[in-house]
Recover the amino acids of this structure.
């Protein structure tokens, strides 16, 4: 995708956003390698969607950010609980968005 931006007439993105439901560490460390190679590592990085109030996701994200130098700015968390049946999805909406990733 970055190659397409460089080849076209569009400006490079001002920030980068990722979705990661599990495997946050490999997703972010891989993204950091690509951004570094493209000279984009200093731009803000956000997680758009990840598991709700999930200690494992939190640990993976913190570890990846600590090891890569990503300019990590925050999470816009989607209310999905790890390993929950997809049919139960609407039940999660009423929950407050206080969680490990925001408050820790």
């Amino acid at each position: 995708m970055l190659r397409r931006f460089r080849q076209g007439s569009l400006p490079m993105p001002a920030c980068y956003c990722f979705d990661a439901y599990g495997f946050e560490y490999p997703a972010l460390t891989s993204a950091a390698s690509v951004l570094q190679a493209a000279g984009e590592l200093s731009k803000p990085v956000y997680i758009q969607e990840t598991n709700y109030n999930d200690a494992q996701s939190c640990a993976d994200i913190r570890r990846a950010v600590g090891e890569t130098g990503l300019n990590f700015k925050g999470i816009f968390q989607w209310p999905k609980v790890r390993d929950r049946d997809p049919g139960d999805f609407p039940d999660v909406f009423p929950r407050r968005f206080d969680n490990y990733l925001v408050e820790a």
